[in-house]
Amino acid sequence: MMNDAVTVTLRDCSRRFNEHVALHPLDLTIQAGETLVLLGPSGCGKTTTLRIISGLEKSDDQGQVWFDDRNVTDLPIERRNVGMVFQNYALFPNLNVAQNVAYGLKVQGIPRIEREARVTEMLALVDLTHLAHRSIDKLSGGQKQRVALARALAARPKVLLFDEPLAALDARLRERLRLEIGTLLKKLAITAVYVTHDQQEAMALGDRIAVMEQGKLVQLDTPQAIYQRPASRFVADFVGAINCIDVDRHGFPRRFCRPEDVLLAEDRRYNQHGFVIGSTFWARPNAY
Predict the structure, then answer these.
(1) pTM, to two decimals
(2) Exposure of 267 by Cβ count < 10 A (0-12 exposed, 13-18 middle, 19+ buried)?
């Protein structure tokens, strides 16, 4: 169904806006078929990186973007064959669901019969066949996001880019769509870059996670490695809760533990002890 996945390579890419450095020089390779999550707080450079990959932003100086052995640095977004899914959906309110999915194909000049076949295929993929003729303003937030995803996939992009697509949704719906997107990306085996500030999304979706801080890439690894072996105090604090037992002179924890490492026990054999000074009831939301 999808084109062969490509490897995306950034070489010395950077971006400055007046006196503000949004992205320090960055070298990054996204392997063909993997989902790379760009994780970090607002203003850390993750969206700037995504926009450079897409062609919506151009790197300063000599930065280059490659798709396999093809230099796409000077190509605009419409010639890079990328699909984008935004937080605000970017759907056309005057078109119904099927027409929104077909819009980009129509602009590309895809013949009507092929266009209709692709729309049918994409709506089935995101479980929206029954809503093909529904108006956009009659959809829920989750349904709108699935329309946006179907539209992005209909053009059979080489690279799929997500810019915080779930940030505007409530927690229950966000968790459900996160599972759906993760399943879909594994099924398609497409090269994908996913921007988020939510570490749960990053852990659930990323084959690898690139943690960013103040325009710099500070750690790139698997979700498990980043959680268990954070490269800095920033990463340790940002990815999950952490309890520092001892820190070095730079403030980085020499010894730390995660909440799941703490036991409630009266056994005096343990060499570290603590006191419960407060508690909060927490029920994990059900995805369905």
Answers:
(1) 0.88
(2) exposed
